[in-house]
């Protein structure tokens, strides 16, 4: 779900409840205590969902609150904040109440004291000041757009379309974000014309005098200066501190892929076996166990070893094409922007099954590859040599199927190059680094600042749609900062991706599972029925004048390409075909106008 708000310093918003309720409804459905709408003279705020909170403070002589605060997410260092603010723990207070007191004590400087995954909005009525804050790694997201005498903001860009002052319009730059860069768009870009995204680690301050943006945190390059033993000790200590709250109050379930990421997350967040109920574990495979294509899906043998070692109640979730097509349709409504449907479908199917068993929280190993540098492109010299975003498909790209007029209008190659050069300028470097080390630093920075935030946000939105709160303990900004400066050979001991993590958890997991090479997350594109359905849908779009993408697609080129066999790599081909179908559905759902 999320949070949304409308600030107007020249207008009484207490009479605009219909618009506020429309904005709130656009965040997603919620019932009972999971929803709140609050309007004062100059601020109208709303929240939806279990993971959100609200608090306010007012002088007894004033009808309007002096301070109003929303949070989407959770604090990780709440106990420390309570000690600083109250000199004692306050277990009955909410994160929103603690943050409200933190703002009263420290003002905007509270960003230097808080930790967690969150977006926060604070309206200070006496100062006529709005603060918007996004967590350092961007696990939560927030979009904003200026309006006369004020500001609109929301956890989803498409939520803002519920306001009559925001048009569902996508211009050439937004189209390039969707069709040239998408689904990993430029950080800060809102795709919808006039809408911007708050960057990870960024604070926005709005007053009647104007608006200012401030980066309160970003990655810094530094010498590492530790040997293997010291690095391993620091890593174990950091992860233990990060996961301590999950050991005290364990999540009901963990997701196991058989890889080191999910196994390590389970090991650190699951208390030692004792009498009583144990957390559940879920692993997803395509079709039925043992019949999925070779090398994909959860490694059920390794997952079984981990589940047995940690005494988890393990379940295999087997899904076929019909289930995944249904899951993709449900995921589409859960997500703010179109994405890789082949991966969204499998993630949603697994989360939906977990929630159906009565769980409300789940632990995932997502984020490990970005934080530890386990992605293929950091280990492939050919991938390192290319001056482009490494996760883009090497086969068929969405822009390849556009008409010549559309390509002339968008100039996708030039747009891609411009955005990549801008991304390179943001990367801090160390003096004296050789070329390969510098390229790895660049690609690691891109993984953390571009790829990881969209992965975490999509996971969060999918989980919220199923009623789950997802915990990603390795997606931590302090851990990311530390490991980004650890030399490549130390991070990947023995030449094995994420070898340092494997070494650090060797005493917590079975040896066979610890050093097993990680496989890809199971994608629906590996099922023939899924592949055929996506081809048929794109062909139908290219022949339907009422389809939003009809005027942009080169029909002859689409038909020719769809008659060919899949290109290599297979995933790039079918990710692109399914993604174009998702973009068309997104345009249609939000009645988007192209300009």
From TrEMBL:
Give me the Gene Ontology terms describing cellular component.
Answer: cytosol
Keywords attached to this Swiss-Prot or TrEMBL record, sorted alphabetically, are: Amino-acid biosynthesis, Asparagine biosynthesis, ATP-binding, Nucleotide-binding
Q: Where does ATP bind?
A: 255, 364-365
Chain ranges of the Glutamine amidotransferase type-2 domain:
1-209
**EC number annotated for this UniProt entry:** 6.3.5.4
**Pathway participation:** Amino-acid biosynthesis; L-asparagine biosynthesis; L-asparagine from L-aspartate (L-Gln route): step 1/1
InterPro entries tied to this protein: Asn_synth_AEB (IPR006426), Asn_synthase (IPR001962), ASN_synthetase/amidase (IPR051786), GATase_2_dom (IPR017932), Ntn_hydrolases_N (IPR029055), Rossmann-like_a/b/a_fold (IPR014729)
Signal peptide span: none
Q: Which domain of life is it from?
A: Bacteria
Kindly list the biological process annotations in GO that this record carries: asparagine biosynthetic process
Which chemical reaction does it catalyze?
L-aspartate + L-glutamine + ATP + H2O = L-asparagine + L-glutamate + AMP + diphosphate + H(+)
Pfam families reported in the protein's UniProt record? Asn_synthase, GATase_7
Query: What Gene3D superfamilies does the entry give?
Result: Glutamine Phosphoribosylpyrophosphate, subunit 1, domain 1 (3.60.20.10), HUPs (3.40.50.620)
Q: Where is this site: Important for beta-aspartyl-AMP intermediate formation?
A: 366
Which residues does L-glutamine bind? 95
Molecular-function GO term, any one: asparagine synthase (glutamine-hydrolyzing) activity
Q: Which family does the similarity line name?
A: Belongs to the asparagine synthetase family.
Full protein name: asparagine synthase (glutamine-hydrolyzing)
């Amino acid at each position: 779900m999320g949070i949304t708000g409308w600030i107007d310093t020249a207008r009484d918003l207490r009479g605009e409840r219909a618009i506020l309720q429309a904005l709130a409804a656009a965040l997603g459905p919620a019932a009972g205590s999971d929803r709140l709408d609050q309007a004062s003279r100059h601020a109208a705020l709303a929240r939806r969902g279990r993971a959100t909170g609200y608090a306010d403070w007012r002088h007894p002589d004033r009808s309007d609150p002096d301070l109003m605060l929303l949070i989407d997410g959770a604090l990780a260092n709440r106990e420390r904040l309570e000690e600083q603010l109250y000199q004692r723990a306050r277990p009955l207070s909410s994160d929103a109440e603690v943050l409200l007191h933190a703002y009263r004590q420290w003002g905007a400087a509270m960003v230097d004291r808080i930790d967690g995954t969150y977006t926060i909005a604070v309206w200070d009525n006496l100062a006529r000041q709005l603060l918007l804050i996004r967590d350092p790694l961007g696990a939560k997201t927030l979009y904003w757009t200026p309006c006369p005498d004020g500001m609109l903001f929301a956890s989803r860009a498409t939520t803002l379309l519920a306001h009559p002052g925001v048009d569902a319009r996508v211009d050439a730059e937004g189209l390039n974000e969707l069709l040239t860069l998408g689904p990993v768009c430029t950080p800060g870009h809102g795709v919808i014309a006039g809408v911007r995204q708050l960057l990870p680690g960024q604070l926005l301050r709005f007053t009647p005098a104007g608006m200012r943006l401030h980066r309160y945190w970003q990655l810094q390059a530094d010498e590492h200066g530790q040997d293997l033993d010291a690095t391993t000790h620091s890593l174990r200590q950091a992860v233990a501190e990060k996961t301590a709250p999950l050991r005290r109050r364990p999540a009901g379930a963990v997701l196991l892929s058989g890889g080191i990421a999910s196994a390590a997350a389970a090991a650190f967040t699951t208390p030692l076996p004792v009498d009583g109920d144990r957390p559940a574990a879920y692993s997803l495979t395509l079709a039925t166990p043992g019949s999925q294509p070779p090398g994909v899906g959860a490694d059920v043998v390794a997952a079984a070893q981990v589940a047995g070692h940690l005494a988890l109640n393990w379940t295999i979730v087997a899904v076929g094409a019909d289930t995944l097509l249904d899951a993709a349709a449900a995921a589409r409504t859960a997500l703010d922007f179109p994405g890789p449907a082949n991966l969204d479908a499998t993630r949603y199917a697994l989360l939906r099954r977990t929630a159906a068993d009565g769980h409300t929280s789940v632990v995932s190993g997502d984020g490990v590859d970005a934080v530890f540098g386990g992605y293929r492109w950091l280990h492939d010299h050919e991938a390192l040599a290319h001056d482009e975003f490494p996760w883009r498909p090497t086969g068929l790209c969405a822009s390849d199927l556009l008409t010549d007029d559309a390509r002339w209008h968008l100039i996708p190659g030039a747009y891609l190059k411009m955005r990549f050069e801008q991304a390179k300028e943001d990367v801090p470097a160390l003096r004296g680094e050789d070329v390969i080390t510098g390229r790895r630093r660049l690609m690691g920075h891109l993984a953390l600042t571009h790829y990881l935030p969209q992965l975490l946000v999509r996971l969060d939105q999918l989980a919220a749609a199923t009623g789950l709160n997802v915990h990603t303990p390795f997606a931590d900004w302090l851990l990311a900062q530390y490991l980004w400066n650890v030399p490549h050979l130390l991070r990947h001991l023995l030449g094995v991706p994420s070898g340092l993590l494997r070494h650090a958890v060797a005493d917590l997991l079975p040896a066979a599972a610890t050093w097993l090479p990680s496989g890809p997350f199971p994608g629906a594109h590996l099922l023939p029925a899924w592949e055929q359905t996506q081809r048929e849908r794109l062909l139908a779009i290219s022949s339907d004048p009422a389809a939003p993408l009809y005027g942009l697609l080169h029909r002859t080129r689409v038909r020719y390409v769809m008659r060919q066999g899949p290109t290599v790599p297979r995933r790039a081909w079918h990710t692109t075909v399914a993604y174009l179908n998702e973009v068309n559905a997104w345009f249609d759902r939000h009645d988007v106008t192209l300009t």
